[in-house]
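Workshop exercise sheet. Pairs work together: one partner reads the sequence aloud, the other fills in the structure field after running the prediction. Swap roles for the next sheet.
Pair: D.N. / O.F.
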Amino acid sequence: MKLNSLQLNAFRGATKPFILSFDTEKNITMIFGENGNGKSTITDALICLCTSEHGSLDDKSSIDKSFFTSITNKPEDVYIKLTTNKGTFNTALVNYVFTKDSDSIYPVVRHLRRSQITQLIEEQPHKRYEKLESYIDVNNIVKCEESLRSVKKKVDEELKSNNTTLQNAINTINSAWQKEKNPFKSWEDWAKYESQKNISTEKERYVILQQIIVKWKLVFQAQIEHKTHSVSLQECKIELEDVEKKLKQALEEHSNAGSDLLNVLQSAKNYLSKENTTSCPVCDNLIEKDVIIHSLNEKINSMEQVKTISQSVRTKRSEFSMK
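Structure field:
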């Protein structure tokens, strides 16, 4: 809104009709002058016109409403008129009350008195904004402060979190440095050295090491299997030697034994078992059948044992050759 003019009549120090014209090309208007030249009259007129307050008169403990009217004038002569680019606004004094047009929306006027400045200085810091509310809109300032407090709290939390993360990282690096037997003078020097390594090269080395570990595990497993087979081979060798010893002993006891003889003895046993005779079928001499059959069984069993041992020796030799 641009101010065009302010017209006063019979108000405070305006003993005569007075018009103050404003420069509409300027964004700020400054009114200055010696004491008693009407500065307070002009500001009080704007306050009485646009607010429910009375300007400098409110600084007094009690308001003498006769002060609204200039000397030699009557209350009904008091008139204030403000012309702007948005319209004209006026008020008159009726029964010492400034009446206004209820259909008009009057300009917003914020004013800061000397007494308010004094109160602002003397007030506690957290209440100073309350003294400025009648002059400036502090809602946005309060919101900004709340936002700043929120941002500060968030930054503090992030800083605390980052410090914790940093300390954890330092502890981790320091632990890794100690596991490496403390190379270099400090973990910082070691970490700097490690950070300068080529990651691609280190990855290739890691892959190679993993392959070596896998192959080493295979070698270790093969070594265990070799030891197991060696023990088994030794046991088999011992068993083979034992069987060969038994075979040698059996062969010495039955040097004349053979498969043909075994067949003849088996046939003789079968013949005697079936025939009811008391004489030898070869020489016709008398024989004791049961004694002859018992002797044949002992001889056959002994030769069967030799045959079994021989078979066992061949099996063990085959197993030994395979191992």
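Discussion prompt: Residues 3-106 form one domain. What would you look at next?
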